[in-house]
Design a protein that fits this description.
heterodimer; A: about 120 residues; mainly beta; 7-stranded mixed β-sheet; about 45% strand; B: about 110 residues; 6-stranded mixed β-sheet; about 0% helix; about 55% strand
Chain lengths: ~120, ~110
């Protein structure tokens, strides 16, 4: 079946602008995750959804970052008043998240955000 | 913040040789996973080892876990040029951290044909 898809694959914006990044998880996956990866680093957790609700948003760096998943499937990561330091690869992952069990997260190809 | 460190940061070997990468972490975990990333794009899941397991195999991959030392290793046997990629370990802790993965900084593996 289809994997996790993310759009756009690349986004170039100017400092101060608003951007939205979209993630389509694997069908049937209840859990969805956003990570951010800077060049030469490992991914860093941003937020985790279980269904429609954010189960853990402890990784969001500040209140300019917000994510939604209104119907428990597609998610949108929203960044307001972008700054040059927001430039990174934004990765989305989804998983089945069996209750209490170990879980494999399946990653999308990422959106590379560049803030000029 | 990054959970742990990976060693070495970069590894260059010839095709057919074995590659070993190490990962250390700081907190107690439910499981540890290894991922591969090609050319800065999406990550591909390789293998998951639970905290009560010590060793796991999958094809040419062998993973060990030592929870007393908070460390893991990934061995790729008989490497191929196609194994060239960045490799990351990621830990999943329990409690309030349930669900989120904490990644290391990665090892860049180059396999020369």
């Amino acid at each position: 079946g289809a994997g996790v898809s993310q759009t756009p694959s690349n986004k170039v914006t100017e400092k101060g602008k608003y951007v939205e990044l979209r993630c389509d998880p694997i069908s049937g996956h209840t859990a969805l995750y956003w990570y951010r990866q800077s060049l030469g680093q490992g991914p860093e957790f941003l937020i985790y959804f279980q269904g429609t609700g954010a189960a853990d948003d402890s990784g969001l760096p500040n209140d300019r970052f917000f994510a939604v998943r209104p119907e428990g499937s597609v998610s949108t990561l929203k960044i307001q008043r972008t700054e040059r330091g927001d430039s990174a690869m934004y990765l989305c992952a989804s998983s089945l998240k069996p209750s209490g069990g170990p879980d494999t997260q399946y990653f999308g190809p990422g959106t590379r955000l560049t803030v000029l | 913040s990054q959970q742990g460190e990976e060693d070495p940061q970069a590894l260059s070997i010839q095709e057919g040789e074995n590659a070993t990468m190490n990962c250390s972490y700081k907190t107690s975990i439910n499981n540890l996973q290894w991922y591969r990333q090609n050319s800065g794009r999406g990550l591909v899941h390789l293998i998951l080892i639970r905290s009560n397991e010590r060793e796991k195999h999958s094809g040419r991959l062998r993973v060990t876990l030592d929870t007393s030392k908070k460390s893991s290793s990934l061995l790729i046997t008989a490497s191929r040029a196609a194994d060239t990629a960045s490799y990351f370990c990621a830990t999943e802790a329990g409690g309030t951290s349930y669900g989120k993965l904490t990644f290391g900084q990665g090892t860049i593996l180059t396999v020369h044909p």
